[in-house]
Amino acid sequence: MCGIAGFWSRKTSEVSSADREFALLKAMTDAIKNRGPDAEGHWLENKIGLGHRRLSIVDVSASGAQPMLSANGRWRIVFNGEIYNHLRLRDELKGEYSFKGTSDTETLLAAIDAWGLKIALQKSAGMFAFALWDQEKKELTLARDRLGIKPLYFSQSDEGLFFSSELSSFFAMRSFGFEFESNRKAVKELLEYSYVRGTHSLLEDVHKLAPGHFLKISQSTKTLEAYWELPVGENQERNFGDSLSEFESVFAHAAKEHLMSDVPLGLFLSGGIDSSFICTLLQKNMGVALNTFSVGFSESSHNEAPEARKLAKYLGTSHHEIDIREKDILDLVGEIPNAFSEAFADISQLPSLLLSKFASQSVKVALAGDGGDELFWGYSRYAQLIKLNKILKLLPSFAKSALHTETVIKIASNLLNRYPEEIESALKTNSFLDLHKWSLKQTRVLDRWWKNDREDAPTMNLQSLQTGQGNYENLLLWLEQQTYLVDDLLVKTDRATMHYSIEGRVPFLDHRVVEAAAKVPFEYKFKNRETKFLLKEILRKHLPPEFIDRPKRGFGAPTASWLRQALKPWACELITSDEEIWDELLDNKFVLQTWNEFQEGKHCRLASFFWNLLVFIQW
To answer: What is the pTM of this model?
Structure first.
């Protein structure tokens, strides 16, 4: 795991001297030092700059240093991530290549040279983002893993092409005369969703490379190409026993490969099904106790630490636990802009930061359970959304219009515990995609909060879905995997772990596991009103019922109580001292009035919006 940054400069004046370019390259990599504190490397030639910050995980010797040159001198790479099956790839390449070290980066370079970029990517199983320079064709390629586990930002202009693992490198470029304006549309999205969706960012003209794609650039051409497509769940009939054994086999194999490391490794154990699933299958296959880490809350509604502790004791892991205290909250909130160089406002980022900091004292690699919910129907809101979609589809357009009466909307508002404006907004949706977008808004900010000149958020660029493929349940999971999973959960895990120089790994999102999960019929994911049915049935082979038959809590945080208690002084000072930052977007008089009412105990459901706003102001 590392951080990468670099450029292909188009400047030809004296201003772009080699000394200046090297200083720029070093500033860009220094800005992401937390991603790789063990070593740094730079290569600069003919206005091509590749920079690397190293977190040594596999092959910690000098032979794993980057930027790395291929054996034949054609390819040079800076790589962030892991190729979990690289030893198998080496076996295929043994007759053609003699390897100097044991790093997966060296394996990838040989694979690209032997099979070409696209085939090498398709053969590789892992999480990664990298930049590759082809000396022969004079081409620069950026590539990102299939699920978007590892980040990669880029910007192309008359100045050239610039890239980095994080936005902080682009902020560092400002000292060299580069200007990046805030993306007004993306700010609106942050305030509504708690994160920035899709391939755009909070900076104008800075984009994220789409998951499962590579971008190839030469002096005259620019090509964006997909090398993998996210599968939509299948509907064919399959035997439950076959589905169970096949998925368990694929997952166990992939999870075992995720143990590849030359440094201490652990697991974030929440006590929920996903992390329990990983812990159970791995612990039974390991010869030594697995290090597990949990965080506890004083609020019982959010505290899964007791369950995690019991499971760790039952499985015999080496368990470590920390409670989040008021002082921790105050300390961590100040770290958010440093950890998340692109503003991000899922409040579970605070316990994630604390857990990562705590684990970093013992390990350099931590496995996490991200992805289980999105693969196996883990949220109650899924069923609610499907029901709402069925109701709306049954209503003809004139009926929807008729429902737009104050009385009907008020009744629906009370029944569904939503603001009237939210009900009205749902009635206006014209497709399942629109309805899903509506459901993802963490705050569903009221239209009257926005200034009249507000702009709509950018449009999502989702992979195409063939007509008639899948059903609404499978389509919903497919949408979640491209939106909430990649833009919220994976961002949180990557930035929180990397802020404390830990490599976070997510076995559920190995593409082989994702493909195997897509083959599981939906009736085995949600059965008898039970979520994650197949995962739980696998666990029943290894664990007693008390570890499985428990209500889901999720890795959240008590947002409202924190903003009204521990974080109140910080929040009140911030929201009243920097009104001009957000005054262009929102009606600040109305927002401040509602904030005061929130502090009096009203508007509990607006806690997420206020957290989003506070994070943006601080950013």
So the answer is: 0.93
